[in-house]
Specification:
The complex is a heterodimer.
Chain A lengths: L29 H29 L10 H37 L7 H9 L1 H10 L1 H4 L12 H4 L2 H31 L12 H32 L13 H35 L6 H15 L14 H29 L8 H24 L1 H7 L3 H31 L5 H27 L14 H31 L46
Chain B lengths: L1 H24 L10 H33 L17 H28 L21 E2 L15 E7 L2 E6 L4 E3 L2 E4 L4 E7 L4 E5 L4 E5 L5 E5 L5 E6 L12 E7 L1 H11 L5
Parallel strand pairs in B: 1-9, 2-6, 5-11
Antiparallel strand pairs in B: 2-3, 3-4, 6-9, 7-8, 10-11
Classes of the chains: A mainly alpha, B alpha/beta.
């Protein structure tokens, strides 16, 4: 799979089913694969969301009374694993990356279309395997972090299937990362310079570097863990002289960058959406590029902030505090630039912009609690509590998932040629935003006051706040209804969008909607100023 | 122009004032019961206030922009073609860097006051040969001061309970009794999986790791009964893995200790 197929010579479309059936075929078209990632991810999002609802039902009362305790641990393990590895990572990288990157670099497909299809088709079987492990001997129940020795002592079949599934998903992620790096660096249309690329390309370049550097570490770690489970080796098993803290270092060496693998592409997508709907150039293009690369470098050296209570020496705690806190600087630069992009614009208030603004507000909040958590003395009290649960949901849900919705509203006309209903979209936003904040904001207080995470039971004094949180979760579940109704109605009889409903300048809009298989009828356009909006002040 | 600047200054000071008011008046933390707790709460207040200023400020800017720069009906055309501003970029790189650096230094100071930078050692076990294997929690005083009291406690954690061994009295208790205002040093080890020792009122937490003893030092300051909570997922009954720490006057503690001890003085 190292030989790239000349995109021009590709004649896959002749054997491809027409219409919606093509999304259920082994297509090599990057656009079809992108949509396959999105639909597959969304199905798993519904599964993960159902599990989240089960958690919130259990926590609506202080006693463990809704499901057996070991099932509860399986549910929270599957919820975390599904939402990370089967929803956010594949969608912000695979779905939008595949759909958009070839357009942005002016190519007709990804560099390695077959590898691309392989990367996608690894996902559905891994996900199904993970879910169906529940019916064998119970799913994994050691949390998505799978810390040994708990992961070694819980029922083996579930844990081994979990490892296999995550290994396959990690492989898929690595294939995707290699493909994005090759496409962005090597398939650029002649005459297109790196510093002229839309920001999402830079975000995907940075993300893919993180994927390629850190995912193999996770793979190696999980293989060692599986040896400990099935072959009685003692890498991490303390009974056999293994060291459990080494596992944590190796695990977080991937899993902290994984946070950036989930949010950097979201940063890139917001950078595409805001200028178009604000009718202004992206503010501070080159600082945005440098801040992405700054986050990539810093993101690799902060992993031990997940281990401040694991028994780490003082110097290590200090180093990781400072490194972590400094990530706030390049991240902050991005937020100030987005706000500056909005300032003085001509903003169309629509679902896409509302979800992007919701993202900014939620992520700023999650970032602030993140800087607080980076401080060792602060973290020692709230580590492994609901404060942390609230914090990372503000990052991955309030951040990445809001951006996914914003992007769906923004690119739906591109993919289908139809417009989404704005009223339903705004309703979707309002319920999601209120539900999300109602669900997660109170959890900060729970953590500060003594409720640890991953528990099925808690002190009665926490009941009221937990119930508020559960009501928020219910609203979040309800919010998918207007969204799904909107999607199906709009596909069936939505208003025709035209080729470029937003008057955008980025290359994916300079073709028909939906685009032809070759992306453009003729030569790919050379877009040197993807953000050339705005009226100059002198006019 | 002057009027506009005046408005801006009023808004900025209102945000700062509001943040200070909220930060100083709204308490989100449980009661303080150790030397660590007031130090922690001081850090929390500062971070809370800085966070509020940033959050309220950013949220207001976003909402204001959405309102002020929204496209009105029938309005055509674009916004201004402003691609960037170097001095602004420098401003919002330098100011956050300085804030982050100051917060980092301040939290270092807090950590030091909590005793985090001290070398940890445990007074009642000769561990010279494997002292590098003992990993630290937080210590409030240096180890030399530890020998002034006789409170030696070994904690063992297992699925799903804590046991407290008092080697000087040769007995094991299911509740942790400690005297108030004395520095307590506990040595913790797990018999199976990873657990954690957390007392929210003390603002301290330390993982309890199998095959790897950890130490936690703390000084309780308020008589009472507080929960000890396992904070690391340890199995199905993790949520029920609780114990109590009972902080009492030295005389009460000694009475309890003598009642339970098996060895003579």
């Amino acid at each position: 799979m190292t030989i790239s197929i000349e995109p021009e010579n590709k004649k896959q479309e002749s054997i491809q089913p027409k219409g919606w059936l093509k999304y259920f075929s082994f297509s090599l078209d990057h656009k079809v694969i992108g949509i396959q990632y999105l639909i597959c991810g969304f199905v798993f999002y519904l599964v993960g969301g159902t599990l989240a609802s089960a958690i919130r039902i259990e926590l609506a009362s202080p006693m463990s009374d809704f499901m057996p305790r070991d099932v509860y641990n399986q549910v929270l393990t599957l919820h975390g694993t599904i939402m990370i590895f089967l929803w956010i990572v594949p969608v912000v990288n695979g779905a939008f990356g595949n759909y958009l990157i070839p357009f942005y670099v002016g190519a007709r497909d990804m560099a390695f279309p077959r590898l691309n299809a392989v990367a996608f088709w690894l996902i559905p079987p891994s996900g199904l395997m993970l879910i169906f492990s529940y019916f064998i001997d119970g799913a994994a129940q050691a949390g998505w972090t799978a810390y040994p020795p708990l992961s070694i002592t819980t029922p083996q079949s579930g844990q081994i299937i979990w490892i296999l599934s995550v290994l396959l998903l990690g492989g898929s992620s690595i294939f995707g990362g290699i493909n994005f790096i090759a496409t962005i660096l090597k398939l650029r249309r002649p005459g297109l310079k790196l510093m002229q690329l839309p920001m999402y390309c830079w975000a995907m370049l940075g993300t893919s570097i993180l994927v390629v550097l850190s995912t193999p570490v996770l793979a190696g770690t999980l293989i060692l863990l599986s040896f400990d489970i099935v072959a009685n080796t003692g890498f991490f098993n303390p009974v056999l002289g293994g060291n459990v803290v080494v596992y944590q270092h190796l695990f977080w060496f991937y899993s902290h960058p994984a946070v950036y693998i989930m949010v950097l592409p979201a940063f890139g997508l917001v950078s595409e959406i805001l200028p178009i709907h604000c009718r202004k150039p992206l503010f501070g293009y080159s600082t945005m590029v440098f801040s992405i690369m700054g986050i990539v470098v810093l993101g690799l050296v902060v992993w031990a902030h997940h281990m401040f209570t694991s028994g780490t020496p003082p110097w290590m705690r200090l180093f990781f505090t400072i490194a972590t806190a400094f990530i706030a600087v390049p991240t902050g630069i991005k937020f100030f630039n987005w706000v500056a992009t909005m300032w003085g614009g001509r903003i169309s208030i629509n679902s896409a912009i509302l979800f992007s603004c919701g993202f900014i507000i939620n992520f700023v909040f999650g970032g602030i609690t993140g800087v607080a958590l980076a401080q060792v003395p602060f973290d020692i009290h709230v580590h492994d509590t609901y404060f942390v649960v609230a914090h990372f949901h503000y990052i991955v849900y309030g951040g990445s998932v809001f951006v996914i919705f914003s992007s769906i509203y923004h690119w739906f006309p591109k993919v289908t040629g139809k417009l989404l209903n704005e009223k339903l979209g705004i309703l979707h936003f309002v319920i999601t935003f209120v539900g999300f904040n109602l669900c997660f904001a109170p959890q900060h207080w729970l953590g500060l006051n003594g409720m640890p995470r991953r528990v099925a039971e808690y002190d009665p004094q926490f009941q009221f706040v937990n119930q508020i949180s559960s009501v928020g979760a219910l609203l979040m579940a309800i919010s998918t209804i207007p969204f799904l109704v909107n999607i199906f109605i709009s596909i069936a009889k939505g208003k025709k969008a035209g080729d470029n409903p937003w008057n955008a300048l980025t290359p994916e809009w300079l073709t028909s909607s939906p685009p032809p298989v070759e992306n453009w009828e003729g030569e790919a356009p050379l877009v040197k100023e993807p953000y050339g909006y705005g009226e100059s002040i002198t006019n | 122009m002057l009027n506009k600047n005046l408005n801006l200054i009023i808004v900025v000071f209102t945000i700062i004032g509001l943040s200070f008011w909220i930060g100083l008046n709204i308490n989100l933390l449980p009661k303080e019961a150790s030397i660590n707790a007031p130090i922690y709460d001081e850090l929390f207040k500062i971070l809370f206030i800085i966070g509020l200023i940033l959050f309220i400020g950013m949220t207001l800017i976003v909402i204001y922009s959405l309102f002020k720069f929204r496209r009105k009906k029938g309005q055509l055309g674009d916004g201004i073609a402003l691609e960037g501003n170097l001095s602004l970029e420098i401003l919002w790189t330098v100011i956050p860097s300085v804030v982050v650096l100051l917060v980092g230094l301040y939290s270092y100071n807090i950590y030091d006051r909590m005793g985090g930078m001290k070398e940890l050692n445990h007074n009642h076990h000769m561990i010279d040969n494997n002292s590098e294997k003992i990993w630290a929690g937080i210590s409030q005083k240096s180890n030399t001061q530890l020998s002034t009291n006789n409170v030696n406690i070994e904690v063992s954690a297992m699925q799903f309970a804590f046991l407290f061994n008092y080697p000087d009295g040769d007995f094991i208790s299911g509740e942790l009794h400690v005297p108030v205002d004395e520095e307590i040093s506990i040595k913790m080890e797990s018999k199976d999986v990873i657990h954690a020792f957390w007392v929210p009122e003390f603002r301290i937490k330390q993982d309890i790791i199998p095959g790897q003893p950890t130490i936690l030092n703390f000084t309780p300051t308020r008589v009472g009964k507080y929960p000890i909570i396992c904070a690391e997922l340890c199995g199905p009954y993790h949520g029920g893995m609780r114990a109590s720490i009972i902080v009492e006057e030295l005389s009460d503690y000694e009475q309890w200790f003598n009642k339970n001890r098996k060895t003579e003085v």
